[in-house]
TrEMBL record, chains A, B:
A Pfam family matched in the record: TetR_C_13
Domain spans labelled HTH tetR-type: 6-66
Keyword annotations of the record: DNA-binding, Transcription, Transcription regulation
DNA-binding stretch(es), residue numbering of this chain: 29-48
SUPFAM superfamilies from the UniProt entry: Homeodomain-like, Tetracyclin repressor-like, C-terminal domain
Name of the protein: TetR/AcrR family transcriptional regulator
Length: 193, 193
DNA sequence: CCAGTTATGGACCGATCGGTCAACAACCGC
DNA sequence: GCGGTTGTTGACCGATCGGTCCATAACTGG
């Protein structure tokens, strides 16, 4: 009994996210968002609220999707340690685009408590996913039993974020991959049996 | 034969840098800069040029000072491997403030070629400083001779940047230190003699 | 103490910011 | 096909943006 929307919510959120991703939150104007999405200001406001709400929505969706993808990659790996290797190597794939969550955290964590809170939660979720896989690798005999899974998961996460940052900073893909493989070799050595 | 300046250039640059550091480049207005520095707009423009020039100046100074401090820390360490350990542990000290260069790179490297270029140069300089110290550690017998100094330096740099990012993201100091020490233990193990 | 020069600070500029709103368009149930 | 409801669009708003400019201040050489 009313006019239907002329857009797919997911498409708009993807386009808006890519715009925020490319330029950052503060440097993105509403005009940028209307151009990227094809919607007018009023439609954006009617559907998603103001600029900040819209941004938080894209960030939440990104975190949700990323965590789901990570969980799948970790769980579907035959040996847990291979999932962990993939986790590290994935940090070398983003290149200059970087990670949307990492970029947003760096730009806004210091001034936007809401973003800081989401970042904290997201990183904690990731650590728990990785830690569970570390435990599985221990059960499978690919990692020493003495390791604290959560602490080691944080180390792996820091290594991955380091890779993401070096990619963002323009380190060539070849060298970035080399660093990722070096991390794999030093942090996840093939177990001696 | 003219009116002298009423400010110390270094003081103004420090205050301006801290403002950019706290809020980011795009989110900092000229009014923020005049408030932080105590100077009027005209004085800022007369002394340093426009907002972007002023920002680049603070970034260049930061890089110069940071590299000088790093070089000193690395060179004054009795054993080179201790300097490398300090390099990693330093990544855990910045906490939520983060690193000015890292924050600026993340915010602007994708859209500001000038910043991207400075970031590339700066990280390359740091890698060379660290690589030289890796070579010294090899000569001192604290690191295996087979390691490629530059490649390993990049790994150490990525680890440090990962620590910086996790600190920026709000990881508690205690856990951050734990990760830093874990990196030290896994990447720079006490040599067996 | 005056002439010349530079520094200062804030009024001012056009442009753009995020956000609002009203007129109009498109659809559904009846 | 009509009334009611929601979506769409772009003109419009006050605020703020980065940047300019000028009247005035503060100093030095002569």
């Amino acid at each position: 009994m009313a006019r239907p929307r002329q857009f797919e919510e997911q498409d708009v959120l993807r386009d808006v996210r890519d715009q925020f991703w490319a330029a950052g939150y503060a440097a993105t104007s509403l005009e940028d968002l209307t151009r990227a999405s094809g919607l007018g200001k009023g439609s954006l406001y009617g559907a998603f609220g103001d600029k900040h709400k819209l941004f938080m929505r894209t960030l939440d969706d990104y975190v949700t999707d990323s965590c789901a993808g990570l969980r799948q990659n970790l769980e579907e790996s035959e040996r847990a340690v291979d999932g962990l290797r993939g986790f590290l190597l994935a940090g070398a794939l983003s290149l200059v685009q970087g990670c949307y969550l990492a970029n947003s955290t760096t730009e806004l964590a210091g001034t936007d408590p809401e973003v800081a809170e989401r970042a904290r939660e997201a990183y904690e979720r990731i650590v728990l996913l990785v830690a569970a896989t570390v435990e599985r690798a221990q059960r499978e005999g690919d990692l020493p039993a003495g390791i604290d899974p959560v602490a080691f998961a944080r180390t792996l996460q820091a290594a991955q974020q380091g890779l993401v940052h070096m990619g963002r900073s323009g380190l060539p893909a070849e060298q970035l991959t080399q660093v990722a493989e070096d991390f794999v070799a030093r942090l996840l050595p093939p177990v001696s049996r």
